[in-house]
């Protein structure tokens, strides 16, 4: 989707990563980063973070940043469970007074 809409140049980092045993900083392997340039193999039992983020520079249409962050568990049948429990979409990521 980022490529389709010309947003790759605004992507801040990969789309997600694996989780280590102690925390998401310990045990992260480059091969488990989720990006176009890495052939990641997802397998049942894995827990991954999906956190696409774009930041559009000031002065550009749509300026600002947006990031979703979900934690997914891959099931034996290839389906995934989103254990984050937070609603999807920008309307849920806007702070209002």
Task: Give an overview of the whole structure.
The protein contains no helices and 6 strands. The mean pLDDT is 79. Strand 5 (70-74) and strand 6 form a beta hairpin. It is globular and about 45 Å long. The chain starts with 15 loop residues before the first strand and ends in a 15-residue tail after the last strand. The strands form 2 sheets. A 4-stranded antiparallel β-sheet has the order 1-2-5-6, with no helix packed on it. It has a two-stranded antiparallel ribbon with strand order 3-4. It has strands spanning 16-18, 47-50, 53-56, 64-67, 70-74, 80-82. 0% of the residues lie in helices and 24% in strands. With 97 residues, the chain is mainly β.
Topology:
Layout: E1 16-18, E2 47-50, E3 53-56, E4 64-67, E5 70-74, E6 80-82
Antiparallel strand pairs: 1-2, 2-5, 3-4, 5-6
- Share of helical residues: under 10%
Kindly state the mean pLDDT as a whole number? 79
Q: Biggest sheet, in brief? A: 4 strands, antiparallel
What gap, in angstroms, lies between the N and C termini? 32 Å
Sketch the topology as an H/E string, one letter per element: EEEEEE
Number of strands: 6
List the strand order in the largest sheet.
1-2-5-6
Q: Helix/strand/pairing class, anyone?
A: mainly beta
Describe the global form. Answer: globular
């Amino acid at each position: 989707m980022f490529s389709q809409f010309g947003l790759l140049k605004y992507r801040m980092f990969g789309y997600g990563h694996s989780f280590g045993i102690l925390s998401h900083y310990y045990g992260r392997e480059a091969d488990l980063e989720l990006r176009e340039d890495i052939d990641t193999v997802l397998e049942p039992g894995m827990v991954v973070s999906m956190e696409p983020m774009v930041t559009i520079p000031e002065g550009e249409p749509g300026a600002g940043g947006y990031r979703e962050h979900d934690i997914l568990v891959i099931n034996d049948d290839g389906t995934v469970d989103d254990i984050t429990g937070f609603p999807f979409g920008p309307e849920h990521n806007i702070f209002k007074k």
